[in-house]
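User:
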Amino acid sequence: MGSSCRISHPGNQPGRAPPFNRSVVLCLLVFLLGSFHVTILSQTIRVGVYHNPPKVAVEDADVVSGLYPELLEYIATEEGWTLEYVLGSWSESMARLDRGEIDLMVDVAYTVPRRTLYAFNEETVLVNWGTVYTRAPLKVLSLPEMAGLRIAVMRGSTHTEDPGGIRDLAQRFGIDCTFLEMDDYEEVFQALDAGDADAGVVNRVFGLMFEAEHEVERTPIVFNPIELRFAFPPDGPLTPLLIERIDTEIASLKGDADSIYYRALKENLLDRPRTETIFRWPAWIPPSLASAGVLILILVVAILVIRREIRQRAKAEEAHRRSEERFKLAMKGASDGLWDWNLVTGEVYYSPRWAYMLGYDTEELEPTVETFRRLVHPDDLDQVRAAEASCLSGRTDRYQTEFRMLHRDSIYITILSRAFLVRDEAGNPIRITGTHVDISEREYAAETLKEAKERAEAADRIKSAFLATMSHELRTPLNSIIGFTGILLQRLAGPLTEEQVKQLGMVQTSARQLLDLINDILDISKIEAGQLEMTFKPFGLCDLIRETVDAARPLAGTKAVELFVKAVPDDCVIQSDRRRVGQIVMNLLSNAVKFTEEGSVWVSCIEDSADVFISVGDTGIGIDAEDLGKLFVPFQQVDNGLTRKYEGTGLGLSICKRLSEALGGSIDVESEPGHGSLFTVRIPKESEVPA
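Assistant: Predicted structure:
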């Protein structure tokens, strides 16, 4: 059987066929009962498309071409479908998908927010990422240099709106800029040509294909690697079968090096004319992947250290600073020089700013305490040693002192040094961490320490910069590992052996697990720092609960666990933060499935005049009475120890408790060993934005 395609526009819907007589209807029913798969062969599949070459191109004569149409039309031919292309902009097409007016949408990024709104197939079509261009001859080399610029973005794009997108990065780095929304990436480049925008964000593939046609400069700023798939309405009548058939066809095509999949990639992405700068896979990818296991191991060890410190000091931001790498990332762009003296190994970390105020690069300084003492003025050295001794002896855990240090230009500058002592669980000193500030040009009479207010404000800025920088700088390398291993797993760089596929899959899985751990740690850090953003708007609770249960089904699918909605009022509307309520329910469902090997997990909800009560129950292992007090403490699990059976960070329930309290509610638990658990969250129907 073959396929056919037609193109429709909004308002030009095909007419209805004349009604069947009873005998025809009876025959059709018998035919449907005989083979449901034959029915979908005769279906017209409504496909949402928008102009985004070379992945999807809509020509003047309404001809649809590109990677996605070629791939989809091949599958339609194999399956006997008739394709009806529904044209529109990106935002128009996604709105149609929301309303169920199309059966599938091409070229949709698979993200955490979207997976709760739409159904996605499992097989990734392409991995792409965002990149920044500027109008010629403007040069921009880093994100902070985008401050004050007019930035053109595509409305609704994942590189614009989602976590890790340009708006998110600008907020986390405190970059004050103006965003100009466009309907597609072509308009972004046109805005740069016309001088209406200073910078623009497009996806990497589009930029490489069309940058030569515009007066634009490519910057080295890339971000937000994403997996591109097909998206479907979650309740669409054809969605399950479309996903199954499309995934089956794509998986088969990926296994054949001569298939239409690789030919379409080559013709649309690799063989198209580009600028004189030809993109090649970075040479560092193969050796980086070879050492990815070591990198992940190092990161995991660092996270374990952070976990131990958080339990003792109950301050997530201080726990992150235990790692020297975290210090480097957190202090980029800060005005203070940072040093961290490891008393166990004797090694000292000096930040780039610390070295710069003395006229050096960090590579020129040995990471030892003798490097510091050699540069201190001889007359001030005893004073410095006395401050160190006061800390190490236990008389104080903090010190502040001023002294002179030798600059590379053979002059002495005056340094204000502040530091604090860190101890291990036994109370033994393990490191001293501090900052240097160059106060040479300040008038001593004016210091008394105006500086007191300035330092308090600087501490707040550093704290905010720490959280923002950690969000991006910790996730970015992990997203790169996930993204680039995805590229290799798609065999875009060449064929792979089964063993290579297995090893790359292990790298990608480990990186995703570590990313989940980091996301949990950052969530609890923001909550404790009072920096968690909340948006209170009315929404339907029933829809949210059913969407969340659907999103959690893959977790239950790996076990003999039935997951279902037990009882939820259909018309219950509350005013609260929809995203945070969904996060609480998802965490509770994930926990329930994890501790239930077989049986059932369910969600129910009741309401009274003031509150709603959402319950998540299971038939799992249950919890001992003496362990109930540990449930909502960060990094605590009921099976802690070297023989732990159930993996996890121990942060999920702690985050649930903090979020429910931030929403004005509470959380309770009932449990009996061997008979399951029941967690109940109370949330006010009319939550107000905190003052």
